[in-house]
Write a structure and sequence with these properties.
The protein is mainly alpha-helical. Helix content is 42%, strand content 10%. The chain binds zinc ion.
Length: 281
Amino acid sequence: MGLLSGLEEFGLGTMQNEEVFEKEKPKTNENGEVVAKERSEMDVLLDRTFECVVCGKEYQARMLKTGKAKLVKQDSDLRAIYDISDPVKYDAVVCPHCGYATLARNLKAPLTSAQEKLIREKISINFKGIPVPEAEYSYDDAILRYKLVLASTIVKGGKNSEKAYVCLKLGWAIRGKAESLPDDTPDKEKVLAQLKAEETECLTNAYEGFSAAFSQERFPMCGMDENTVTYICADLARRVGRLDEALRLASTIITSRTAGERMKDRARNIKEMIKEEKGEK
Ligand SMILES: [Zn+2]
């Protein structure tokens, strides 16, 4: 018996099967199949206000809301791919007033007065501002920002690991751009080859920077433990064609007493890929 039972005698018997509250109907496509509600990239972004550690002025930085994008897969060098948006696009942050730029994780890290002076004298004095996109960033917006982060990191005398990490992220932004290049791009093959060359240059710098950091710095580096950095270096070496180095580093992970099984599997996968590249399979 429903809420509307008893209406039969008034000639409204069919009303019994009516729903009192209409259920929200799932969105369907033209074949009547249920489709997931589409989210736009802007749905997972927000603007957060920061105070610049160099000029002291406030500005807004666009960021990914935490937990809103879902991890779909990881490239062999641990670049994460999400179902919506690409966090790599929002990790490089530039103060629009003075040009000081850093990775989001270091936004609040204070500089020494000597470093501030260097940023003012070598960056701010020449900085002409940066266009702030109204909506989501393009990969070109991100690539420009990473270059400014690299400039600030060099000027302030950042560690080799910091510079290496910025180069790695810049390489990932370039890879993201290549992967999302529209099919109707003029001279697409040529553009892709150019982007591949730029990515390889970034990854080579990242590999060399981390390699230098191994003997000069302590772990964690940029929030990563020794096994993670070793693993990333193994894959970077593979990607830039230093296959013997890649094999040596992958073996270090495989025989490590502290590396987890998943990472060891990844390292074995690197060895497999190199065997295939060398035509041993
Ligand atoms: Zn500033």
